[in-house]
Amino acid sequence: MAIITISRGSYSKGKEVAEKVAAQLGYGCLSREVILDASDHYHIPEIKMIKAIHDAPSILERFGRGKLPFIAYYQSTLTRWVQKDNVVYHGLAGHIFLKGLPHVLKVRVIADLADRVASEMKREGVSEQEARTLILRDDQERRKWTQSLYGVDPWDSSLYDLVIHIHKFTVANAVDFICHAANLEQFRTTRESQQKMDDLALASQVKAALIVDHHLNVAVTSEYGNVLVYARADDRATHKLKEKAKTLSREIKGINNIEVHAGVSMPPDAL
Amino acid sequence: MSVIIISSDFYQVGREIAKKTAEALGYTYLGREILGKVADKYHVPESKLAQALDESPSLIGMSSKLQNRYLAYIQEAALTELLKDNMVCQGLAAHLYVLGVSHVLRARALSDSEKLAQQWASQEGVSLKKARKLLDRRKNLRRRWSMDAFNLDETDPSQYDLVISLSQIDQGEAVKIITETVSYRRFSPMTYSIKCMEDRELASRVLAALLEKFPDVRVRANGGTLVVETTALKREKRKRAEVIKKIAGSIPGVEYVEVHVINDIFRQAAESFR
User: Which residues of chain B does A158 touch, with a Cβ-Cβ cutoff of 8 Å?
Assistant: First the structure.
């Protein structure tokens, strides 16, 4: 019983692998559903949401806080979905959004560029040159996105538990590897790991709710339902934040206690 | 009946996994133990061979020409052994030169960096932050080494069939995954894949013989036919081709040698200014 995240590039057969793993293990399979739910829940047009979480931030967005609200909404929705466990997620940045959870098996599926180009040519009816350009641009966009927002390279193998190269291996082999690994003791959901998951989901929900209310300079942690909100704000804004926190403790399920700390440094593991 | 090449971000981690894999499968382990033999064969110090496998060329250290030569000697010895099949190879950079051979499983094991940093911190008596920094530096140096030596980034996952991180998956489980994987039919040697391996082995023998005299040569083999590329001044072309043909032709297994001499424009320009 685990959560499996499958990171993939376009045309790397990761989607096929994810669907087959989900079918074999009897898990749910998630990808686009998260975007749809996030845009519905936070009243954001789907296209805007997709653009925000797919495209790398522009120079102006890097200086402002352009994409951060969308990412908070997305993470909040994703953690709510995967909290139920037994899920295969093959959408964006699962390995980053669900970092630090022991029962999450993080997999990356890669394929040779030549095979990916051939698939793109077949599907889109474009020339080899065009197909190559499209794939490389998409890869570059993903790389820039992750690097600019999280300072990590999605091509870095150390972010994953397994990296499977679909070349000598078939999709069926990859499915076998993943199912085998998912059944290992290390990836079983324990009470402690589920608690961590619940805390992450709770912190994500609180952060998203605060951002909706225009409290942008906040970081949130949660431990056994005790939520700490760290803020960079003046007295007036802190007062407002405390009022909002009180409301949230009634609105969001699972909060035991919520505290607001202003003017203290934000912990590195806070959301 | 296949060959497994194991790479790791830390030599010791890769070595442990390779040894356990060889033991589990009843294969032969091929590691740095062969450096002694290589040193005897080519009359070079064993420590220099190990240095060529670990350090990038530098002004105060080893020159790139010397490193290339030592690596060619190691490559020749490793490929000769790998022809025997049923081998688990590690620590000889084989993942960077045994390319395009279908019966070779190339796996990489990534150590648990956090655990290693903690070990280092307690062993060396430094802070955890400093230990992490040192580890990162070592990883970057290793990456630079692979780029300098073989023009390939060894951290690039597309160089491997499988990359296993040991943060959550333990060594025993990694060994199990590798041993099960190698039993797949596609890792059985085929006539063509054996020929590919033989071609690489022949090319490596010729390269090792030529590098001392011609440090810029590149060698490709197809059956018994060799294609050797080198650079020379216009007036030296003929003579150089003859010497290469003579040296390469004397190596067992070589039937025909084709030498492509490219005009050395830099030396030519330097000479014209004299």
Answer: 9, 110, 113, 165, 167
For residues B5 and A262, give the distance between their C-alpha atoms in angstroms, rounded to a whole number: 54
pLDDT-above-90 percentage for chain B: 28
B150-178 pLDDT, tens digit per residue, is 888 888 888 899 999 998 888 898 999 99
Quick one: B130 and B24 in the same domain?
yes
C-alpha distance from B116 to closest chain A C-alpha (Å): 14
The answer to the question of residue B102 being in a domain is yes
Gap between the Cα atoms of B138 and A257, Å rounded: 44
Q: Do B157 and A157 touch (CB under 8 A)?
A: yes
Domain shared by B129 and B264, yes or no: no
The first and second tokens of residue B273, run together, are 């200014």
Could you report how far apart the first and last alpha carbons of chain A are, in Å? 26
CB-CB neighbours of A22 under 10 Å: 21
What distance in Å separates residue B274's CA from the closest CA in chain A?
47
**Chain B residue with minimum CA distance to A160:** B165
Judged by CB atoms closer than 8 Å, whether chains meet at A161 and B165 is answered as yes
CA–CA separation, A211 and A130 (whole Å): 40
Please tell me whether residues B70 and B16 are part of one structural domain. yes
Residues B161 and B221 in one domain: no
Q: For residue B128, what are the CA distances in angstroms to B120, B121, B132, B213?
A: 8, 5, 6, 49
CB B224 within 8 A of CB B252: no
Domain CATH for B10: 3.40.50.300
The verdict on B162 and B230 lying in the same domain is no
Q: Terminal CA-to-CA distance of chain B, rounded, Å?
A: 60
Give the structural domain span for B245. 213-272
Please write the tens of the pLDDT for every residue from A181-204. Answer: 888 888 888 888 888 888 888 888
Confirm or reject contact between A104 and chain B (CB < 8 A): no
Contact between B169 and A184 using a beta-carbon 8 Å cutoff: yes
The answer on B178 and B224 residing in a single domain is no
**Residues of chain B found within 8 Å of residue A175, distances taken between Cβ atoms:** none
Domains, in order of start, for chain A: 3-187 (3.40.50.300), 191-262 (3.30.70)
Structurally, chain B folds into a number of domains equal to: 2
On the 0-12 / 13-18 / 19+ scale of CB atoms within 10 A, B270 is exposed
B222: helix, strand or coil:
strand
Chain B residues inside the 8 Å CB shell of A161: 164-165, 167-169
Question: Could you give the dihedral angle defined by the CA atoms of residues A69, A74, A77 and A80, in that order, rounded to the nearest 10 degrees?
Answer: -100
Q: Global pTM?
A: 0.84
Beta pairing class for B162-165 and A162-166:
antiparallel
Q: Considering only the beta carbons, identify the residue of A105, A157, A168 that sits closest to B110.
A: A157
